[in-house]
Here is the input.
Amino acid sequence: MYRFDRFELQPAERMLRRDGAAVELNGRYLDALSLLVSEQGRLVTKDRFMAEVWRGVPVTDEALTQCIRTLRRLLGDEAARPRFIETVPKHGYRFIAAVEEGQGAFGQPPLPSPTFGRTAVAGTVGGTAAGAIGGLVYGLSAAGEPRDAGMGAISVLLVILAVTAAVALIGAAGVSLGLAAGERRLGGRGAGTVVGAALGGLLVGAAVKLLGLDAFNLLLGRSPGAITGAFEGALLGGGVGFGVYLARAASVRRSVAAGALGGGGAGLVIGLLGGRLMGGSLASLGTHLPGSRLSLDAVGRVVGEQGFGPLAATVTGTLEGMLFGACIAGAIAVAGDRAGRA
Here is the structure.
């Protein structure tokens, strides 16, 4: 048995599966894919395809071209940006994705995936970048609000940027590790990706809220309860996991779009249910902590509210979710693309 990305190929049983579901493929095309995968990383010449797949039956080069085109379509590959099948002009083709060999029946847990670390690291980097972008926006908004002379606009910007990026790093690490663990356990199936990312977000969200509330109580004797936590972490993680699952074997651009769709949908649901992501949490801190100089009222005014209200929380939550999901899915896709070209 060969495993690569979300696929399992068992030539002896004449079966190809994606996420556990059978993929329909005619016999010659299955033979061509088996030949490519078995020679992973090595050139398979046109003459060899003719000898081992068509077995001497006279066909034109167009038959081989159509075969490769069909295989790419089924794998979600692109000739211009190959992740699986690379064209070697005038000579043949090469299978460039990482391949694992194993034994056993379909449906058994896959072997440990070499992409686990890549997915976790890339997703963490992407999510942290999203937090930095969001922190820059919120920092600029807060820096423009009137305040006393004790703290300059640059200081406000830098503090909010640092806090938001740090929280995003922790959240992205939890979601990405959960996502990678779900893929590793269930072979890239949608349930594993979504549930793993949701659990990662839930655990990190619960820990951040618990430690945050305790820290404020310890230092200030008071803490606002309306900050992001396990509920928001689970929903956002699940949405991002769903987006990453949809983006598998797609181009970077489509991965970004799928991640934005999943994360934005989760952010919208969180806002509609009264939850808060980073913007809502910052606004809550600024409102409820005595002596706070933090204000995101400018964001509320953009959506027509006096102060940062429910509409602002919903709008910013949706945009945050879109940015978070797009950056994580895009970073994972870029990492996979580079690994495929290595």
About this structure: The beta strands are 2-4, 7-10, 15-18, 21-22, 43-45, 85-88, 92-95, 100-101. DSSP finds eleven helices and eight strands in the chain.
